[in-house]
Design a protein that fits this description.
Length: about 240
């Protein structure tokens, strides 16, 4: 398993609570904070492209820096539902640096600017996904919102001049204090949501199985599911 700069990194395994963000209140995504010991094993204090499993379900994502030397993971609704977990759950996570850098999503304002600067677009199209992610990350790394339009203009000028990598900016957010993890919603909120969606005995057993499978243990045999009784018989008190 390969990490950054050719360094071999074993899979990182940990458990973390799935949190709902305080803002926006109608968010469909959730997130989790990596334990410090897990973040410390990754190759960068900035963004890290990873692949792994969440509650036994495979995923690919980019870990975001929390501004304090650690990382957080955004869990989209599709992944959360596929993994069968909810906000408030303690989930098992296994991850490692991705073998290949995924293509980053280009923000609409940067995409429009590149469309208006043909020479900058030529340089952009020749960059690696990692280099493009650095440019995208650099643009909002200033402390003030009004800095963004100026940085997009500066990025287009530098790209048009043939500059392929942006340098000398704080990718971790530790020094600029420009990055941080989302603020979690009050615990009572997602506990109320969980109370309204109680798990059945079979669902609890399935989740327990997913956790042990994520640790490398085998699944329960089909005979277990066929012969086990998860609902109390009507003829018993």
């Amino acid at each position: 398993m390969l990490g950054g700069m050719g360094t071999a990194i074993e899979s990182v395994r940990f458990r973390a609570r799935l949190l709902r963000p305080a803002q926006p209140r109608n968010a469909t995504w959730t997130f989790l904070l990596l334990p410090r010991s897990a973040s410390a094993r990754l190759p960068s204090r900035g963004q890290v492209a990873v692949e792994g499993a969440l509650a036994g379900h495979p995923f690919q994502a980019v870990l975001e820096p929390d501004g304090e030397g650690g990382h957080w993971l955004k869990v989209e609704r599709k992944l959360r539902e596929a993994a069968g977990v909810r906000a408030g759950d303690m989930v098992a996570v296994m991850l490692r640096p991705a073998a290949e850098e995924p293509e980053p999503r280009v923000p609409p304002d940067l995409r429009r600017a590149l469309a208006l600067h043909p020479q900058a677009r030529v340089t952009w199209q020749g960059l690696t996904p990692a280099a493009r992610r650095d440019w995208i990350h650099w643009i909002p790394s200033g402390r003030k919102a009004e800095t963004r339009p100026r940085r997009i203009a500066a990025a287009c000028d530098m790209l048009a001049a043939g500059k392929r990598r942006v340098c000398c900016f704080d990718r971790s957010g530790m020094y600029s204090r420009s990055l941080r993890a989302p603020t979690p919603a009050p615990r009572a909120r997602f506990e109320a949501e969980r109370a309204a969606q109680l798990l059945t005995a079979r669902q609890m057993t399935e989740r327990a199985q997913d956790f042990y499978v994520s640790l490398g243990m085998p699944k329960l045999p089909s005979s277990y599911w066929e012969k086990s009784q998860f609902i109390k018989p009507l003829d018993r008190d």
